[in-house]
Amino acid sequence: MSNQPLIQDSIEIDAPPARVWDLVSDLRRMGEWSPQCVRMAVLGREVGVGTRTVNLNRSGWKRWPTTARVVVFEPEQTLAFRVPLNRSVWTYELEPTATGTLLTESRRTPNGTSKVSDLAVAVGLGGVDPFEASLAEGIRQTLQRVKAAAERA
């Protein structure tokens, strides 16, 4: 089966966009939010367009590295980074609401994923459908963890 061009979910957070932004834009904390990301190491000091990261991901006992580059950085609005290995773009969009913030996380693959990624997912991660189901669940969990942290603060 082919990759979904969009996997996305949203959550309402009872906290202002500035607080939510502080959490999602601190890429060094991505391992706290995402069940798939073990660690995201930022190369350089400040995060902005062009910032590069080295990431360690997991699925069960399996681990694999990736890299990413920030492609959109609009404070309190949008953060997006592209993973060259699989050509995916991960995005966090913040929208003010009457009670706080609507946070949306998405994984887009507008041009499909790379053959290397497709092979790795097929052979090492159980196939596209189960892997993408785990990504959708991971997005849901990430949003819930960010919500809990933002509402605790």
UniProtKB/TrEMBL annotation:
<dbReference type="Pfam" id="PF10604">
    <property type="entry name" value="Polyketide_cyc2"/>
</dbReference>
<protein>
    <submittedName>
        <fullName>SRPBCC family protein</fullName>
    </submittedName>
</protein>
<dbReference type="InterPro" id="IPR023393">
    <property type="entry name" value="START-like_dom_sf"/>
</dbReference>
<dbReference type="InterPro" id="IPR019587">
    <property type="entry name" value="Polyketide_cyclase/dehydratase"/>
</dbReference>
